[in-house]
Design a protein that fits this description.
The protein is built from five helices and no strands. With about 70 residues, it is an all-alpha fold. The protein has a single domain, classed as lambda repressor-like DNA-binding domains (434 Repressor (Amino-terminal Domain), Orthogonal Bundle), CATH 1.10.260.40.
Length: about 70
């Protein structure tokens, strides 16, 4: 599975948006976009899900059983 930082950065570039444009379109602060793309670990899950929803994804808890399957 790709790391969150790589996923967001690759998808943002696929839709040809700068970080600034992406932040504006999602309604999330530019600093949040930068933190995600830099792989920072102290992130607000609600903000991450707003960003991921642009690509039809969301973060959700899963059990270790589900990961092993």
């Amino acid at each position: 599975m790709k790391r969150l930082a790589e996923f967001v950065k690759e998808r943002r570039k696929e839709v040809n948006l700068t970080q600034e444009e992406f932040a504006e379109r999602t309604g999330v602060a530019l600093t949040v976009i930068r933190k995600i793309e830099q792989g920072k670990t102290n992130l607000n899950v609600d903000k991450v899900n707003i960003i991921l929803s642009m690509f039809g994804h969301e973060l959700a808890p899963v059990s270790s059983k589900e990961i092993a399957e």
